[in-house]
Amino acid sequence: MINSYPSKYLDNAIAELAKLPGIGKKTALRLALYLLKRPTEDVELFGNSIIEMRRKIKHCNVCKNISDHDICDICADQTRDTTQICVVENIKDVLAVENTQQYSGLYHVLGGLISPMEGIGPDTLEFESLIERVKSGKIKEIILALSATPEGDTTNFYIYRKIGTIPLTVSAIAKGISVGSDLEYTDEITLGRSIKNRIRFDG
Known about the structure:
With 203 residues, the chain is of the alpha/beta class. The protein contains eight helices and seven strands, in the order H-H-H-E-E-H-E-H-E-H-E-H-E-H-E. Helix 1 (8-17) packs across helix 2 and helix 5 crosses helix 8 (188-196). It is elongated. The N and C termini lie far apart (58 Å).
């Protein structure tokens, strides 16, 4: 098989870079050639940082957010409101909510949304660990901060049903967020207001 480029090593690097989201072959070529021009120690530092990230980052034992330790900094923070849990789809949503500076409680990262079409059911997501936290009796409010999509609505309803008769408030972020929008693409002001003006969720 003839390589597309004059070096099989360049060809391999481009093929791997092109696997990244939003990176096509042309961009991958540009990135590979840029790295090729950099000093060897710079490229090694870059490569090692990616390997170290993949090998050493953990998921918090409590909220499933990413962390360098068994318990993430948010869960370990004594100043946070430990009676509130904001339920989000993924780690990017934690960052989005934190950037609003309108929320000071805890989080729970589901790792996705219920989507039968994609083969994602409740058993593949972090529902049981959420229910265990709720059953501890320390939680007074669950804030459902999921995307305004059919999958988000289905997941909200599933959580609401699973919590059942446990005495706590279940609220959802206000509909300042457009229907069909992912949380991570919502501007910070709109998201912040949606959290601050959250409404009671009644299923």
